[in-house]
Each structure stands twice: as structure tokens, then as C-alpha cells.
Design goal:
Blueprint: H1 2-25, E1 41-44, E2 47-50, H2 51-54, E3 55-61, E4 64-69, H3 75-84, E5 91-93, E6 98-101, H4 107-144, H5 150-183
């Protein structure tokens, strides 16, 4: 029962880390990255569809993203959704493909983005600590039901804290990497 509890907790922590990483990927740095478009959806025959499912997205140069829709009639819709997004880039539509020129970030925008990634990382840490709290609550219930001893409870709480610390360290490492990426000129 304890092993299942920790396995589920670790899976939830891993999912939290992956979600945070996904949010980080959507934050624009000074470089072009296809993952910037992960949160762009278009109306594709009445269904809200991710851009990457209806077009080929490639990074042709350090600051240029090329979007080639599988069906050219969706160029206008793609262009409209990019303009409506908070990417802060203007699409160049030549009738066949859309080019996104990623401008370099100014110092003020870099600082805003660093604040944003710090906020996302803190939300990840809070989520990890909430998972730890749930595990400890479950362990305390197990101890009050007589399923585990008080010594087991103390040992398992320590194990939960070690797991939490490991994931918080992973979040901190991801945050540090993203901050460096944003602050690069």
C-alpha cells in the first residue's frame, strides 16, 4: 500500500514537472523554437486543432519559424490566430507559407519573462508540496488505522520529504536553465 502511494505521488510530481516544462517551452526567448506555437489552435473544419497538427513547422534560421499548412486555405486562419496570441510577432504571409521573424528581446521584456518563469516555477513547487502533504495525510490515516507503526510513519514521512526535495531541485534546475536562456543576448 505504501509503495503504491509513493509510486502515485512520484507520477504526479513527474506530471507537474512536465507541465511546468511545457509552460516554459511556450515562453518566447530571443531564439526561434517550434514549441512557441504549441498553444496556438485554429478552427479546422469546426474543431479547435493545434497548429502543429495542420501544418509543418520548422525553424529555418536562428530567428525565423516557417509554417507550411497542409492546406493553403488555412493560411488566413493561422495568421489570425498568431496575431491574436501573446507571442508578440507579426506573421509574414506570402500565399504559400507563413514566416515568423522572432525579434530580439529588450531588457525590460527579458525581466518580465524572468518574473513569469519564476512564478510558474513557484506554482510547480507548491503543487509538489501539495502532493507531499497528501501523501503524509494518507500515511497518518494508515497509522491511525493501525496499518503502519509510528516508526514507519516517521520513516515514510522522511521518504516523502526526500522525494519532494528531489523534484523541487529539478524545478530549480529547469528554472535556472530557462532564466539563462531568456537573459542570453
Amino acid at each position: 500500500m505504501k509503495d503504491k502511494l509513493f509510486k502515485e505521488a512520484e507520477e504526479k510530481m513527474e506530471q507537474t514537472l512536465n507541465n511546468m516544462q511545457h509552460e516554459f517551452n511556450g515562453i518566447r526567448t530571443g531564439r526561434a523554437s517550434a514549441s512557441l506555437l504549441d498553444n496556438i489552435y485554429i478552427d479546422y473544419y469546426g474543431a479547435k486543432t493545434p497548429l502543429k497538427h495542420v501544418s509543418n513547422i520548422s525553424v529555418t534560421e536562428a530567428r525565423v519559424i516557417l509554417i507550411s499548412p497542409y492546406e493553403p486555405k488555412f493560411l488566413k486562419e493561422i495568421e489570425k490566430q498568431i496575431l491574436a496570441s501573446d507571442l508578440g510577432v507579426t506573421p509574414n504571409n506570402d500565399g504559400k507559407v507563413i514566416r515568423l521573424n522572432i525579434p530580439p528581446l529588450n531588457e525590460e521584456r527579458r525581466k518580465e519573462l524572468v518574473k513569469l518563469v519564476k512564478k510558474i516555477a513557484e506554482e510547480g513547487r507548491v503543487a509538489i508540496r501539495n502532493i507531499r502533504r497528501d501523501v503524509i495525510d494518507d500515511l497518518k490515516k494508515m497509522e491511525s488505522n493501525g496499518d503502519i507503526t509510528e516508526d514507519d510513519l516517521i520513516r515514510e514521512q522522511k521518504k516523502a520529504q526526500e522525494l519532494t526535495d528531489a523534484y523541487v531541485d529539478k524545478i530549480d534546475a529547469s528554472l535556472e536553465h530557462k532564466e539563462k536562456e531568456i537573459m542570453e543576448v
